[in-house]
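== Sequence entry ==
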Amino acid sequence: MYYVILLIVIVILLMLIVEVIFYNQFQMAKIRISEAQNNIDILLQKKFQLLERIKKIIEEADSKYQEEPILANLLKIKHKKINNFELNKELETAWAEYKGYVDLDSSLAKLSTLKNIGFELIEIDNDLKASKKYYNDHIILYNNLVKRFPSNLVAKVFHYQKEPFFPEVKIETLEILKEQKVIK
């Protein structure tokens, strides 16, 4: 009888140790995901601010852009509460639209302030790609913990669920300009 109780206690202790190990792995994954989300959030805000500056510069540089709405979705973004996935898509659309305007209007391409902001945006895009990769890499680890045995038992106890990946957004400039009725 004594050995049976000792065996049960040992099994319970082993289960607790395994649970603590997997719980800690979940916590590390969540910390890294949160870190990546914070970096992405900061970079998206910087990108948004730079695109707003571009809009003002373009409108000040040429009166024809004051009459027709350029980068119109920036106003929608400013007044909507959207998550980073949607914000990223909207900003990619605005960035592609801006590049289309520069391609169509050579006077815009000559403005040094727009060139400098364009270089900053390219740098932010590169940082965003790295942050999204870091995020997605840790989402893979986290989601694997949620799905695999025995860590899935810990996930069920603490109500951890699969998290979404950060999608890669590819937007064609030509299509955006057609939608905006800039070109026919």
Notes: The mean pLDDT is 85. Helices lie at 2-61, 64-67, 73-79, 84-104, 106-109, 112-147, 151-157, 173-179.
